[in-house]
Amino acid sequence: MLHVQCLLGGRWQEAESYLSIACRMVYTLRGHVFEGQQAPSTSDPSPNKETRHVRNLFWLCYVSDKDLSLRTGQPPLLADIYCDLTLPESYLSSYTYLRGLEEPSRLGDTHLASLTPHLWGDAQLGCLKEKIYRLLYSVHATSDKDNRLLVHIRQLDDEIERWRLSVPLDFRPALSVSPDTLIVTRETKPPQRKRYFHLLLEYWYLMIFVHTTVRRYDAHTVIGDGSHDLHSVIHSSYDLSLEAGRSTLRCLRVFTKTLSDEHLWFLIFYTTNAAISLFLNIVIHPEEVDGQLDLELLISAANTLRMVKPRGAVPDEGARIQQHSDFIMWLVWLGSCAITKEREGNGHHG
After folding, report:
1. Contact 148/140 with Cβ under 8 angstroms?
2. Residue 101 pLDDT > 80, yes or no?
3. Predicted model pTM
């Protein structure tokens, strides 16, 4: 609970320290071991409830562990090799009940207690995040040759796509999305809408994370007939990461109006990540025609964050939100300088 509270308040370092304790505790409780589905006992259901509860705590820790691992660059605490990652048999049923679930739900409702819990993001994506860290950011990955890097990026992209296609159509994220193309209607229940938005943000984040890594590849060292095809592959990764970043920023205002205050710092994290992705492209390729449009997206994102009302119960939240907004505006200024310098240089050559 302390870990989650720190996450919701955007206090990442404190959240990380509490998570390490929680992971050790869940190991001690054997939550990392899947004991299978047991027939419910009518005489004493408490052992089954306890096992289920501990297993749910494991998944909560597991998903958070993978998130923080990618954010901090530190190895995961709940390594896959030591954990049984068997999902509950009814895991995908959460998509079914979310379509008709109203908010707020009543605590103690026996029907809700029997439902399979759904987590921020997705448990299956948690498994994929460990693989992303291992193949792209571990010590061994950073020493791999460039051709191995491209193979791993392609492999991870395929796995992300398989996950995306496994999600029911009315929850399924897409790469290029605007507020007008979000698959929500007035009839969409709030829990379904929130779940859909969560999956969108997670999908875009991973697409940025995986495909931005291609910038480590030194394409200038490639010569010969294969260089053109290789450059096409690299630019394809650029395009995927940039479109994911643009979709994140295009829909930011909708997200801030729809998601509750407790999701604020998750939104700020995804926004900052997307903003950095677009900024890097502007600085590296200031001549591209989309640069000015990307600057406008960054300005819009900074203004959207500036309009967010801080919660009085969260210390210094207003100042911290302002810092993130100012940071994005700083990226705008630097990006504008890069574009202006490029134009002036072309003018002199002309």
Report:
1. no
2. no
3. 0.89
